[in-house]
Amino acid sequence: ATSSPISSASSLGELLEVPPSSQHTHNRGKKSRNFVQAAAKRVGPAVVRLDTELNSPAQDRNRGAGNPPAFFSRGIQPWQYHASFDPDNRGQGSGFVWDARKGLVVTNNHVVAGASRVRVSFTNGARYDGTIVGADEAADLALVRITLEDSDGSAQRFKEDFVGARLPSVKLGDSNSLGVGDWVIAVGNPFGLDNTFTLGIISNLRRSSAEVGIPDKRVEFLQTDCAINPGNSGGPLLNAAGEVVGINTAIHADAEGIGFAIPINRALRVLNDLSEGRQPTHAWLGIQMVTLTPAMSREFNSLANASGVLPLTYGALVVSVAPNGPAARAGVRIGDVIAYADGAPVPTMARLQELVEEAPVGHPMRLTIFRYQFKPALWQRILGKPAIP
User: Contact, 93 vs 234, CB < 8 A?
Assistant: First the structure.
């Protein structure tokens, strides 16, 4: 179902009553009507808008990050980051305060990549300069530190902006506890409309980066039908208790109600490294692959130019091998079907990605491969693309 703004959510009636763990009262002593209102009051002040000035023209930015109708990465993949950029080298996205004491704001890497200046704006009108502490392109995450001191070294303006001289911050939840159908709330600044809340559900718990169309990212995404638009990138995805369970990152450009968020449990591994000055590392095989299906296997075996019979109907089919990468050095070839990794079955490419991501960097991984000889025309028919040399 397509999600709708919270102003129309009251039609859901009792389904939106405040969960016992998140009941909250207004200043007038009345209980919030539903959990969305409670989350908005609790989390809204900690969600920020990030305005950036870019070092390079917007059209040269990280692929997929441009304004519509630039919907396709490399011209073939139907996904789009939901940051917003204009031709004047200015960009806009969202973020949230993760560590109030250190002034650390979480956002997506594609929101701030290439930025010469970052400005952080709060809902109370306070604005501060931000410094990029660290970023991980593979996980599409970045940390920005807010500059709280005035030019004279004092924090007087900050103290005037926030009661108690403390930044508002979010509470983190457990993304592993989510289930399909659970309520979630997307928060951000779509098209510059600050502090916009939209309601939806979890549609899928484990979308691989290859399924989403960004195979160079090392993340499995949550899928949601919350309304998400350009400018939402980096904003939090909340559970019914108002806790952050994801970071809104991408949308499917050819559809409505298909958005993707980085699970907060996965993000924390990267964010902890970045906050301590370490660059996150990721295990890497150096291949691109698709999931072998029974239909693809039948297609292989029916072709006149096939030189043998492919015995498998499952596995990760290698479609590209990075020169001088680990797989290339081990002798992996285009057309190989990876059936096992370290003895574990590989029914899909997503499973192989999981096994690689879980492995320590430098770990020697043993692959069980079925090798199948073919001619280049096979790729044009099976994959709809030329063979990769």
Answer: yes
* Residue 233 falls in the annotated catalytic set: yes
51 belongs to the catalytic site: no
Please identify which of the residues 3, 73, 94, 233 carries the catalytic annotation. 233
With the C-alpha atoms ordered 136, 281, 259, 75, is the resulting torsion angle positive or negative?
A: positive
Mean pLDDT for all residues in the chain: 78
Q: Between the ranges 209-213, 251-255, 265-269, where is the mean pLDDT highest?
A: 265-269
Segment 333-373, tens digit of pLDDT: 888 889 999 999 999 888 888 888 888 888 888 999 887 65
Q: How many CB atoms lie within 10 A of CB 93?
A: 31
Active-site annotation holder among 3, 32, 82, 110: 110
pTM over 0.85: no
Q: How far apart are the C-alpha atoms of 279 and 295, rounded to whole Å?
A: 42
Please confirm, yes or no, whether 140 is among the known catalytic residues.
Answer: yes
**Catalytic site residue from 51, 140, 273, 336:** 140
Distance (Å, whole) CA 351 – CA 333:
19
